[in-house]
Amino acid sequence: MVPTNSAFRPSWPGRAGFYGASHENRTRTACGVPTPEERHHAARTVARHARDADDLRELLDMLGLTAREGQAPQIEPPAIPAPHKRRLLISELTAMLTEERLGA
Fold first, then answer.
1. What pLDDT sits at residue 47?
2. Which residues 6+ apart lie within 8 Å of 28 measured at CB?
3. Where are the domains of the chain?
4. Dist CA 80 CA 75 (whole Å)
5. CA angle 37, 43, 12 (to 5 degrees)
6. Cα dihedral 62→65→68→73 (10° resolution)
7. Neighbour count for residue 28 (Cβ, 10 Å)
8. From CA 52, how far away is CA 80, in angstroms rounded?
9. What residues does 28 pair with on adjacent strands?
10. Which residues contact 56 (CB under 8 A, 6 or more apart)?
């Protein structure tokens, strides 16, 4: 006999799984093909569990993945914005301060 108290019921994920139905819709295209991000994660997981390089090549080949898909994407660093005003030379700053003193 199975207890009916909710404290004894296992908490299994529903039909939608752990992430819910929206996760499935968000990560797959309309035709059910894995997204590049999913292929990247799959290749990384296979690499983590492979015994050696030969095993990795064989597993990736079976799944239709490439080693390049497991590599982290190359991200270019953001460009440093140019200052909106140019900086004064020492001679220009000295001349400006001298003019202020004489004019004041």
1. 93
2. 34, 35, 38
3. 16-72
4. 15
5. 75
6. -150
7. 13
8. 42
9. 34
10. 46, 47, 50, 67
Is 10 a residue whose pLDDT tops 80? Answer: no
* pLDDT at site 73: 77
Which two tokens mark 40?
């990247």
What pLDDT does residue 21 have? Answer: 47
Task: List beta partners, residue 34.
Answer: 28
Residue 15, amino acid: R
Residues 39-97 have pLDDT tens digits of 999 999 999 999 999 999 999 999 999 989 888 877 888 887 766 677 778 998 898 88
Instruction: Compute the distance between CA of residue 85 and CA of residue 1 in angstroms, rounded to an integer.
Output: 80
